[in-house]
Amino acid sequence: MNAFQVFRVAIRALLRNKLRSFLTTLGVVIGVAAVIAMVAIGEGAKAKVAEAFASMGSNLLIVLSGSTTSGGARGGFGSLPTLTWDDLKAMRTECNAVRYVTPQLRGSASVISEDQNWGTSVYGVSPEFFAIKDWPVASGSNISPSDIEGGTKVVVLGQTVVEKLYGGSADPVGQTVRIKNFPFQVIGVAIRKGQSVTGQDQDDVVFMPYTTFQAKIQGGLQKFVPGMLMVSATSSDDTPRAEKQIGNLLRDRHHIPIGGDDDFSIRNLTEMATAQQEGVNTITSLLASIAFVSLLVGGIGIMNIMLVSVTERTREIGIRMAVGARPLDVLAQFLVEALTLSFFGGVIGVVIGLLGANLLAGQMGWPVLVRVDIIVIAVSFSGLVGVVFGLYPAMKASRLDPIDALRFE
Amino acid sequence: MADALIEVEHIAKVYRMGDVEVHALRDVSLTISEGESVAVMGPSGSGKSTLMNVLGCLDRPTRGSYHLAGQEVSTMDRNQLARVRNRTLGFVFQSFNLLSRTSAQENVELPLLYAGVSGRERHKRAREALDRVGLGDRAHHHPNQMSGGQQQRVAIARALVARPHLMVADEPTGNLDSRTSVEIMALFQELGRSGITLLLVTHEPDIARYASRVVVMRDGLVQSDRRQTPLLADVAAAAAESFKAGVP
Q1: Do β-strands B197-201 and B37-41 pair in parallel, antiparallel, or remain unpaired?
Q2: CA-CA distance, B8 to B64, in Å (whole number)?
Q3: Does B82 contact A320 at a Cβ distance shorter than 8 Å?
Q4: In Å, what is the CA distance from A2 to each residue of A6, A208, A335, B118?
Q5: Which of the four pLDDT bands, split at 50, 70 and 90, describes residue B245?
Q6: Chain A residues lying within 8 Å of B82, measured CB to CB
Q7: For A109-151, what is each residue's pLDDT tens digit?
Q8: DSSP 3-state assignment of A112?
């Protein structure tokens, strides 16, 4: 018998017991569907986390100034300005793993248009901020280096602010808004960024040159950076190197002795992102392994039914042997039956798993990420389950003695 | 005398049942020529079924040699025996042993499937075999839609489809009424005339009369072995028919 004939005989035998074949397959269907769905959802969650961290800025490091201590109460990082504008310039020039640096000065203010007003966050930034955040303008132009030098009174508005001041569809470029009684010209509108990881509306914001911010909004000591610095490393692999370079540079510039406490702190957001993704990975593999266990249970179900089937069809096996079936022919027949059950179970499972993943991802607002490698693994694993669990019943069938098999009632 | 199809020399078969050895065949020597029809008779426990299993290559003798169509069979492994059963032998059983829920046509094709015959050739030859047993119009019926006699004819078609030298029939008429039995025997005789050797196990003397040779077994030994002029089954069937017709 050739492979095709063996397959045909197996299909016919399975179709003779449609309900039983279906129920046997169900175990594998559920197992494979669970694996596919779990992994797809896990990948979706991972992508969601990655997306959230990417929206914070790529390869991001945050440098905060030192802490104040007054009467034994320590004020926390950022409470004592220790980072100077010269530190910022030095980072740009001396650290080769650093790509962009921007201050992020933050205040809140009321922004007033001709007939509306809106209280929002005001950020003093450099043009590099938009590169770090990957946040271009939707219309108009961005803050330019000459705006920084000149301390010009220009703003880039976030989408929410535009909606609150001008309504949804308006383009306010060229208009004038008043902040703290100074007139600012709107030169651009940033594209919509959506919610941050912590659920804040990132579009409820107004950007202006940090020089302007310091002069008009905040005031304070001109030598120090009254906020934090955002640093983007040249690549995600370079973030540890950038972190080290900045640390060494600042310790050197601030004359901190070896073993002394830093008067600044550096946060590596890439590390946080990686840690979060690893957490998601752990959960994904946990879910997937539970799903694989159910696939295994499905395989045992196949073995069970195949054993019953061999006993039930002992006489048939005897007849086949009497007319010339070799032990190998009988082995192949039952093995292919088991394989067919598990393989089709795997294929149906993939379809159901993908549908399930779509449904769940839709409800949770996650992207659906189908991993082809997992589909291939799940289907081949279900095939393997068929072979492993089909082998014993098939061998049992092939070892039957034709005389005993023919006498079996 | 024609060539010897079966040459059995001093075969014995011993089964172990727990600690007890059962000597099903003690010492049997037998030569059967091509074209003979041999009825093996004997009471139950005489070893006739064991002899049939050994001669039908379903079982191997414990001792002795068995040449079938010139091949030494007693030392073959399971795969080789399967091949011999497939190519050289055809089986007919008392309980027909057809695959249920499978059409007559497919039942008859079964040996050809294992012989590796292509689909079209299988169909053609199965059809021919069914025509030969007079069931050409029932090819697509399933066994449960057929009478006992028809089922046994399908079984005979299956046995002869691979063009065997030897047909082994184990109580082929045991489940049939006497009239159908005679019809089946007529069919066997017709096949015998075309050169197929018949080995028939039966306990009915009536049936043994249609064979050209009767071997009687007792306690694992051949008790008697005699040749006879067989009764012609088709004549007997016609006589029975006319007798029945003559009854007012």
Answers
A1: parallel
A2: 8
A3: no
A4: 6, 77, 14, 10
A5: low
A6: 321, 324-327, 329
A7: 899 988 888 999 999 999 989 888 888 888 888 999 999 888 8
A8: strand
The owner of tokens 């040749």 is B227
Q: Tokens in use for B147?
A: 């009478």
CB contact under 8 A, B85 and A321: yes
Q: How far apart are CA A326 and CA A339, in angstroms?
A: 20
- In angstroms, the CA B6 to CA A139 distance is 101
What are the φ and ψ backbone dihedral angles of A59, each rounded to 5 degrees? 50, 50
Interchain CB contacts (distance < 8 Å): A and B: 59
DSSP assignment of chain B: -PPEEEEEEEEEEEEEETTEEEEEEEEEEEEEETT-EEEEE--TTSSHHHHHHHHTTSS--SEEEEEETTEE-TT--HHHHHHHHHHTEEEE-TT--PPTTS-HHHHHHHHHHHHT--HHHHHHHHHHHHHHTT-GGGTT--GGGS-HHHHHHHHHHHHHTT--SEEEEESTTTTS-HHHHHHHHHHHHHHHHTT-EEEEE-S-HHHHTTSSEEEEEETTEEEEEEE-PPPPHHHHHHHHHHHHHH--
Contacts of B83 in chain A (CB under 8 A): 324, 326
**CA pair distance B114, B111, nearest whole angstrom:** 5
Q: Could you read off the pLDDT tens digit of each residue along chain A, which spans 409 residues? A: 678 888 888 888 888 889 999 999 998 899 889 888 888 888 888 887 777 777 777 688 888 887 766 666 666 666 677 888 888 888 888 888 888 999 988 888 899 988 888 999 999 999 989 888 888 888 888 999 999 888 899 999 999 999 888 887 778 888 899 998 899 999 999 988 887 767 788 889 999 999 898 888 876 657 788 888 888 888 878 888 888 899 889 888 888 888 778 888 888 877 777 788 788 888 888 888 888 888 888 888 899 999 999 999 999 999 999 999 999 999 999 999 999 999 899 999 999 998 988 888 788 777 777 778 888 888 888 888 889 899 999 999 999 999 889 888 7
From A17, which residue of chain B is nearest by alpha-carbon distance? B101
Selection from B147, B104, B143 nearest residue B127 by Cα: B104
According to DSSP, residue A201 is labeled B
A96 touches chain B (CB under 8 A): no
Check if the beta carbon of residue B42 is closer than 8 Å to that of residue B12.
Answer: no
Strands A60-65 and A69-70: unpaired
Domain ranges of chain A: 3-52+275-407, 81-262
Assess A322–B contact: CB distance below 8 Å, yes or no: yes
Look up tokens 């976030």; give the residue.
Answer: A158
Which of B101, B116, B158 has its CB closest to that of A323? B158
Cα B192 off chain centre by: 11
The verdict on a CB contact (< 8 Å) between B58 and A403 is: yes
Decide if A216 touches B, using CB distance below 8 A: no
